[in-house]
Amino acid sequence: MRLVVQKFGGSSLSTAEKIHRAARRAIRAKLDGYRVVLVVSAMGNATDDLLALSSEICAEPPKRELDMLLTTGEQVSIALTAMAIHAAGHEAISLTAAQLGLYTDSVHSRARIQRIHRDRLDQELSCDRIVIIAGFQGIDISGEITTLGRGASDTTAAALAAVLDADQCEIYTDVDGVYTADPRIVPQARKIDQISYDVMLEMAAAGASVMHSRAIVFGKKYGVPIHVRSSMTDGKGTMIMNETSGMEEIVVEGVTLKEDLAVIALNGVSNQAGLAARIFAVLGQNHILVDDIVQNIYDEGKLANISFSTNASDAPAAQNLCQQLARDMGFDGVSIDKGVSKISAIGVGMRTHTGAASTMFDALAKAEINIKNISTSEIVISCIVSNVDGARALRSIHDAFGLDKIEPRSNQINEIP
Amino acid sequence: MRLVVQKFGGSSLSTAEKIHRAARRAIRAKLDGYRVVLVVSAMGNATDDLLALSSEICAEPPKRELDMLLTTGEQVSIALTAMAIHAAGHEAISLTAAQLGLYTDSVHSRARIQRIHRDRLDQELSCDRIVIIAGFQGIDISGEITTLGRGASDTTAAALAAVLDADQCEIYTDVDGVYTADPRIVPQARKIDQISYDVMLEMAAAGASVMHSRAIVFGKKYGVPIHVRSSMTDGKGTMIMNETSGMEEIVVEGVTLKEDLAVIALNGVSNQAGLAARIFAVLGQNHILVDDIVQNIYDEGKLANISFSTNASDAPAAQNLCQQLARDMGFDGVSIDKGVSKISAIGVGMRTHTGAASTMFDALAKAEINIKNISTSEIVISCIVSNVDGARALRSIHDAFGLDKIEPRSNQINEIP
Known about the structure:
2 copies of one chain form a homodimer.
Chain A: E1 3-8, H1 16-31, E2 35-40, H2 46-57, H3 63-87, E3 92-95, H4 97-100, E4 102-104, E5 113-116, H5 119-126, E6 130-134, E7 137-139, E8 145-147, H6 153-163, E9 168-173, E10 194-196, H7 197-205, H8 213-222, E11 226-230, E12 238-241, E13 254-270, H9 275-285, E14 290-298, E15 303-311, H10 315-329, E16 333-346, H11 356-366, E17 373-376, E18 380-386, H12 390-400
Parallel strand pairs in A: 1-2, 1-9, 2-6, 3-6, 9-11, 10-12
Antiparallel strand pairs in A: 4-5, 7-8, 11-12, 13-15, 13-16, 14-15, 16-18, 17-18
Helix pairs in contact in A: 1-3, 2-3, 6-8, 7-8, 11-12
């Protein structure tokens, strides 16, 4: 029997009417012959409201208690969504992560999924019920309540789709798909019909906030197509799927902007094997999310400058750790450049086409925007610029790659109504 | 080591400042050498807000999903209270019913506690932490989330006090103790310093809303003194404790009013052994809360009229069940009197003093209030009157028993600061 996982974000559940609409979507899929698993986020701004409440009480609340607090948002949503389906005359049951058996490690506020038990899910689905799962939350082996990080209900949905070998994972949101750039910044941005996991992964990592990266990883690893679509309309959205041959024809598929970063530079690091490993191991152990890393060597290869970008909020902690490392490892010093943004151009076509980098640098030069750092990978080119130049830089490269003009590709999407 | 269970109701936790105040109480008890377990309700009107949300979605939500929804209120409170204690520099940990291991039966919305595991509690207390438990909630043996009924955080507190053999169970609330009558209705009402479990039990059952009956049962059964006191002041409240000889000197200790009841009368019931048992078994199986039962026989003992009171909200269901029983058992019929109130006078002194009933009837007669039903027990006299007469009836009997004039008794209370 076919199975679909549908995920509804907070903006798609912010009122009773929107919850009824989500319920109707689920019921429609069920009537179309699917087994249906819903994953829901906290209603509207519920998570932010809870965070505001906690900051009234305690400036730095223990993360365990913050997880205890925040997971109530999704629990409210699962109960109300089950009630809405019940009100429409269909059977539904809500499950918390503990009831489902969604186990994570014990890193509060940034836990990673370790395993998901199927027994309860299978049992409820075989009773012909729509099963509603609280996104974002997990439990560790001792029964402690964890969360997977902000926006991680997508991850819950994709992980469930993987475990259940779902035919599709639908992500319902307040936009109608993935765009070539953020339409709030680039009005000419165009909706993308199909995109490969890899490109979507790079776009999400580079700042496209429509999808959570970890969700795409699950989709890719287990081959679950992810359909990002609007909860307000019935139109097709963007299908995130395995790469098809047609995709390579386009050099750059999207451009992204990631604001409010900081670049931390470590100068005069002795260029020995293992030193970079040690630096980033320390940052990782302290749960600093490191974005791009750039290294240059100088002084005949004896010394290196290593720089990396990180969220502005993690920057002070990262700077402290690096200063400690500078003392321990005896390198020159640590400098920090706050208030920077990263713009990236992403596309699988870069593998087989050349010239994307020079097109990008040329566009920025024409716009008189200074580039601070550059890093490239097989399908991404990224430049660090000042926050103030970010939006203008994005518009100029979107224009330079002609992203507003590309013809829509074939729309052979195995769509779920 | 001495141990105290402190319970804070929703009105004592309605703002960040009040949560900090509750935290300070707990810390003070800890600094005084107590092991401290806190039980908290949902903040302020959180439960009502959640109920309003659910009724926007579904007129008759499944009780399982309602429990799923409502238990989030207490989970928010435990997390915030733990944060407040942390902010004051002390160690605390919050636990849901599932984490604690507070097991109930599976009757959603009215579950009964079956057992409480001590292991986690003992472990956390031995680490010198203040442990904060979500009131009102439980889990059944399958891990389903249950609730103990409105106001049942008191029950959670008393049950924990019993299991832990606590020195005292403190119930912090927005009033400063138990009164001879509801002061909102009877301005002359006086705070009671000491009261026996039995009298408090009857007062709670008869409408004194300050304490939940089931909590008092736990206190009595396991001999845990319960101190009902104000969360806003340091004054002594009312100590609910074993009966002392001095208590019998007072005939009536308090009067109560329970409004919005219905009386259902079954007429012409054949007076055979087992019939009443069958009637109330059916009502019980359908979770109708039956208040007082009155039976009179007539026709040379062959027939009986049986009437009982119930909450107005349960009355339609109760009436349907009784009509079904009338058909099955062949009795005359079922009549219902809606919109009635019960006034009760309660005191252990009634056991040894006479004349309380006539004092009560006389007071009502002088006030020209018609009595519909009368029932008495060893320490209670109750009369059913019209809702419109309720408040006036309460004032007249409070006055008739001279409850505003009684001297305070000895105040030898083993108080926890």
